[in-house]
Amino acid sequence: MGHGRPALEQDGCRSAGRQSAYYRYRDSNEARREYDGFPTLLVVTTSAAAEARFAYQAYLAQQRHGTAPLSIFLTTNSRVEACHSGVLGPIWRSAAAPWADEPARVYWLPRLRRQDGTNSGARHPIRQTALTSHSSTAR
Question: Alpha-carbon distance 28 to 131, whole Å?
């Protein structure tokens, strides 16, 4: 009993390993063949503390790799549930400044450009259908 690493340390090691794998893949020829630019990574955590730990691990991974940072946005389950737009709302923080007490919350999806070059405004909310949480129950 007690011979393994503490749970928080294990989570940090798994997170660091996963992020290193993302960097290696992004910098590989395979990723360049499959993507025109690497996709944004969205991470939903169970708590603000877990979100902060992941942001710190993302910062450390970027420092280790010394290349351009991955595009990573983080949020919590409670923020998704509290926002009327769900995952499409301004609930995401960047992993760039893990030490921020209250990081800025933004939309992860950039505004789409119309063909006439103007920004399109969201006039109608987008319904969240396939993105419901596993913990919700039918009533």
Answer: 30
Do the domain assignments include residue 102?
no
Number of domain units in the chain = 1
Q: What is the C-alpha separation between 126 and 98, in angstroms, rounded?
A: 30
Decide: helix, strand or coil at residue 32: helix
Which residue, among 96, 77, 98, has the nearest Cα to 86 in the 3D structure?
Answer: 77
For the full predicted model, state whether its pTM sits above 0.70. no
Nearest in space to 44 (alpha carbons), one of 110, 99, 97, 89: 89
Q: Domain span at residue 37?
A: 8-94
What is the amino acid identity at position 12? G
- The pLDDT tens digits of the residues spanning 45-64 come to 999 999 999 999 999 998 99
Q: How far apart are CA 58 and CA 72, in angstroms?
A: 8
Considering the domain boundaries, does residue 1 fall inside one?
no
Please check whether residue 12 lies inside any domain of the structure: yes
Kindly tell me the burial class for residue 85, based on how many C-beta atoms sit within 10 Å of its own C-beta (0-12, 13-18, 19 or more): middle
Instruction: Give a yes or no: residue 122 inside a domain.
Output: no
Distances 20 to 27, 37, 70, 90 between C-alpha atoms, Å: 11, 18, 10, 27
